[in-house]
Structures are given as C-alpha cells and as structure tokens.
Amino acid sequence: MGKLATIGKVTIRVFGNDHLPPHFHVKGAGIDAQLSIETVEVIAGDLPAALHKEIRAWVAANRPALVTEWNTWNPHVPFA
Fold first, then answer.
1. Inter-residue contact 16 to 58 (CB < 8 Å)
2. Is residue 7 a contact partner of residue 51, using CB atoms and an 8 Å limit?
3. Are 40 and 47 in contact (CB under 8 A)?
4. pLDDT in tens, 2-38
5. What are the Cα distances from residue 59, in Å, to 37, 69, 76?
6. What sections of the chain are H helices per DSSP?
7. In what order do the strands lie in the sheet with 31-36?
8. What is the sign of the dihedral through the CA atoms of 30, 35, 37 and 40?
9. Are 64 and 54 in contact (CB under 8 A)?
10. What is the DSSP string of 29-44?
11. Cα angle at 20 between 18 and 24, to 5 degrees?
12. How far apart are alpha carbons 41 and 23 in whole angstroms?
C-alpha cells in the first residue's frame, strides 16, 4: 500500500486509514520510523543521521507526490 520510493535498503510508504499527524513510514532492515510530512522530523522510531538527510532531500523533491499519496489513502484526515 502506498509505496513511494526505495532509498538504499529502505522503503518510503504511506498507509491507509492511518492516524494523525499526516506522516509516512520508512522501513528496512533494522529501520522502522514514522516522519511528519510537514516537518520531515521523526515522530516515532529512529533514523541514522545520514539516512534522515537523504529522506529530507527526497521529500523536498517529491512533496506533491507524498501529499497526494497521503490524501488518496487517508481522505478522512487530509493533509491541507
């Protein structure tokens, strides 16, 4: 559901019927984090600093697609 990208050995995903705040998941071997769409800060879990930097760059380049994906899978709590 909602797989947006693979960066190295992690995937960026949005899940349906998820909770606020609007966020995305970063999952991979030993990595399971949730990051705010708005701030790109970690709201649950942990990311190595270098990977967090790569994720922030990806979000900066792909924010419209990320927001669209969140709104598609979570119309009950849209990201404005």
1. no
2. yes
3. no
4. 789 999 999 999 999 999 999 999 999 999 999 999 9
5. 8, 13, 23
6. 49-73
7. 3-7, 10-13, 23-28, 31-36, 42-44
8. negative
9. no
10. TTEEEEEETTT--EEE
11. 60
12. 10
Phi/psi region, residue 2 (left: phi>0; alpha: psi -120 to 50; beta: rest), is left
d(CA 48, CA 1): 25
Q: Is the pLDDT of residue 74 over 80?
A: yes
Are 74 and 2 contacting, i.e. CB atoms less than 8 angstroms apart?
no
pTM score, whole prediction:
0.93
Q: Are 10 and 26 in contact (CB under 8 A)?
A: yes
Cα distance between residue 1 and residue 69, in whole Å: 10
Task: Give the span between the Cα atoms of 45 and 33, in whole angstroms.
Answer: 4
